[in-house]
Amino acid sequence: FQNNGDSPFIVDNVEGGFRYPMDYNYVIQNFTSFRYGREVAPGVTQTFLYMFVPSEQLAGGSRTFSLVMSLNYRGEDGTLYTDSPFNETVSVHEVDEGFDTEIFFMYVLLAALFALLLFGAQYLLSSVVGGRKSSRKTIETGTSGGIDYDYIPKDHLTSKKAKATKRD
């Protein structure tokens, strides 16, 4: 801000925003208004820092916007003035990082779907083409001729019978 006048001006605030290039009244995104309240003496040039962050949804570079910065100031008699030190058409570009997580997880999802498709195809082909050839196994139900006491020692058999008769 350069004060070429004879009296000091007080810079109240700086505000900005993106506007539609074909219609100045259509606001796409407003930025924060910074209040300064700084006096600029006659014949002095003053620089004001204004930082803003555009929305990530506006990135892509295919659309252009009008970037308008407005400087609101007043004279010592209280008259309000507005000046636009910057009013140009700009394109917002997304910073190209080396690794994009959205693309990475898309590839992971596609690999999982491909593995699921292969597993399903293998399951269907094995049941349709080959099937499972299982031989019918016989189920063992035990011996049918009674109990074989030959492998049991004789003293075990007699002691059980003797104890059983003593208790009766």
Rg, alpha carbons? 45 Å
Write down the overall mean pLDDT: 81
What best-fitting shape do the alpha-carbon axes yield? Answer: rod-shaped
Largest sheet: 5 strands, antiparallel
Helix-residue proportion: 25-40%
Structural class: alpha+beta
Percent strand: 25-35%
Q: Outline the low-pLDDT stretches.
A: none
- The H/E string reads EEEEEHH
Number of strands: 5
Secondary structure tally, helices? 2
Work out the oligomeric state of the chains in this entry: single chain
First-residue to last-residue Cα separation: 122 Å
Describe the structure.
The chain is of the alpha+beta class. Helix content is 26%, strand content 30%. The chain has helices at 101-130, 154-167; strands spanning 9-20, 23-30, 34-40, 64-75, 80-91. Strands 1, 2, 3, 4 and 5 form a five-stranded antiparallel beta sheet that branches. It is rod-shaped. The termini are far apart.
Would you summarize the structure shown here?
The protein is of the alpha+beta class and 168 residues long. The protein is 26% helix and 30% strand. The longest helix has 30 residues, at 101-130.
Question: Which features does this protein show?
Answer:
single chain; 168 residues; 5 strands
